[in-house]
Amino acid sequence: TATKDNARPPSTDNDTLVSVASERSLVDVNPPRGTRDFPPEDMRLRNWLFNNFREVSRLLSFEEVDFPVLESEALFIRKGGEEITQQLYNFEDKGGRRVVLRPEITPSLARLVIKQGKSVSLPLKWFTIGQCWRYERMTRGRRREHYQWNMDIIGLSKVRAEAELIHAIVLLFGRLGITSSDVGIRISSRKVLQAVLQLHSIPEHLFAEVCVIVDKMGKVSRDVIENELMTAGVSIEAVKGIIEVLSLKSLSKLEEVLGSEDEAVTDLKSLFLLAEHYGYIQWINFDASVVRGLAYYTGIVFEAFDREGKLRAICGGGRYDRLFSTFGSDDIPACGFGFGDAVILELLKEKGLLPDLIRQVDDIVFLLDEELEGPALKIVSSLRQTGRSVDLIQDKRLKWVFKHAERVNAERLILVGNSEWQRGMVRVKILATRDEFEVKMDELTAPS
Ligand SMILES: CC(=O)Nc1cnc2ccccc2c1
After folding, report:
1. Does position 167 have pLDDT exceeding 50, yes or no?
2. What is the mean pLDDT of residues 361-373?
3. Potential cystine with 62: which of 42, 66, 127, 250 (Cβ 3.0-4.6 Å)?
4. How far, in Å, CA of 390 to CA of 387, rounded?
5. DSSP letter at 73?
6. Region 390-410: what's the mean pLDDT?
7. Ligand 1 centroid vs 40 CA: distance in angstroms?
8. What 3 state SS string does 115-126 have?
9. At how many degrees (to 10) do helices 236-245 and 222-231 cross?
10. Strand partners, 391
11. What is the CB neighbour count within 10 angstroms for residue 148?
């Protein structure tokens, strides 16, 4: 470990922090299971991604909101067997309250809308980027946290809200260099399933549970789906009807089956028409198998996928017109999506689209003679006041400083030393051109 004044035990090389063996026990330097640290390089990539999320949110004139990561457990207790509610990162706090690290954002957002009640005028267009948690047995070695960009429109019942959300997703992909040949967006409506259940007179209260089971199609075997549906109380002919209609990939076929007055059909046809006007029709296709795994969706649902089929869904969302009444409020029409920080980075890596984000510093000020520390600090202070990033270096050999300047891609190296200072000057080296010259101190902040 570093000792006083940066002198290091001779056994270690200059820049590596090591712990010398001692009777002290070393704390586990890894973060808790399933969680990540973000060292500078990873943090630059995360900030780059999140800044794109923010910029798209701005383009759609969404307002940023935020919520505690810690929430009451009651907000997420739902029947229907969703994976997300079976993996709650829940515990009892010191006040005996049942709390969770939130597994998703939407319930918190609904809570705030209800709390704000009459003081907010609808529609609301809110976004947030927040960490979400799950607690699953580490058998699968999966992460227990990730960050999600959430966009929600509260108070619009027409599908133009969903069309706006899909525009946001298309804009985001465009900004990252992803095209509609890399990624598609599958779109359907839960009203398809609703129609089939009604056709087979399956009771309404089974709707959410059936959706959660059917969402597993393609992830678990077909007879698991059939068994779970039967166990839930769905007749075998209804099961067949569900599986048959969910394999439809053409809207005109769906119209033949459900009729042109069916709400699923009219919603989807309107949405595809709006997509033509936005100019993103080539990104989307109807796919009745899209159900999404959250119990509270009631209408249009969608998810973005990589056309090579190598990755899990990139993002997903849908309409949830009944969520507010489950919290005891009047119903408010709403729709939204969640966009995780993991799969998108895997996709960008696959496509060779990860940006090369270098560290960048404007000026390095290097103090050659200790007694000039005062003037050097004056220079540092005035440069920073003009908005230049400055790295002040002391107690290093010049050779190290040149290497460091390269490492941080500095624009200028400013050397403060006696030989120049006695003439009121400092030495400046432009690293890109290797130009070297002397200037008066206040010329440093003059616009170059
Ligand atoms: C790929 C990935 O990290 N998924 C992930 C990781 N953590 C979560 C935590 C809560 C809910 C969903 C989550 C999803």
Report:
1. yes
2. 97
3. 127
4. 9
5. G
6. 96
7. 22
8. HHHHHCCCCEEE
9. 130
10. 364
11. 21
Say how many C-beta atoms besides its own lie within 10 A of residue 254's C-beta: 24
CA 132 to centroid of ligand 1, rounded, Å: 7
Cis peptide before 203 (omega within 30 of 0): no
- Quick one: which of 151, 56, 172 has its CA closest to 109? 151
DSSP state of 220: B
Which atom belonging to ligand 1 lies closest to the Cα atom of 84?
A: 11
Could you report the per-residue pLDDT of 236-289, keeping only the tens digit for each?
999 999 999 999 999 999 999 999 999 999 999 999 999 999 999 999 999 999
Task: Please give the biggest Cα pair distance in the chain.
Answer: 95
Residue 341 Cα to ligand 1 middle (Å): 9
Instruction: Report the pocket of ligand 1 as residue ranges, CB < 6 Å.
Output: 103, 132-134, 143-146, 340, 342-343
Can you read off the two tokens belonging to residue 349? 């890596």
Q: Residue 139: is its pLDDT beyond 70?
A: no
Contacts of residue 200, Cβ cutoff 8 Å, sequence gap at least 6? 234, 235, 237, 238, 241
Give ipTM to 2 decimals: 0.93
| Angle formed at CA 104 by CA 171 and CA 197, multiple of 5 degrees | 90
Query: What is the pLDDT at residue 149?
Result: 98
- How far separated are the first and last CA of the chain, in Å rounded? 42
For the CA of 342, the nearest atom of ligand 1 = 1
Position 7, amino acid: A
| CA-closest residue to ligand 1 atom 10 | 133
CA dist., res. 300 & res. 267, Å (int): 8
Task: Let me know: does 296 contact 322? Beta carbons within 8 Å.
Answer: yes
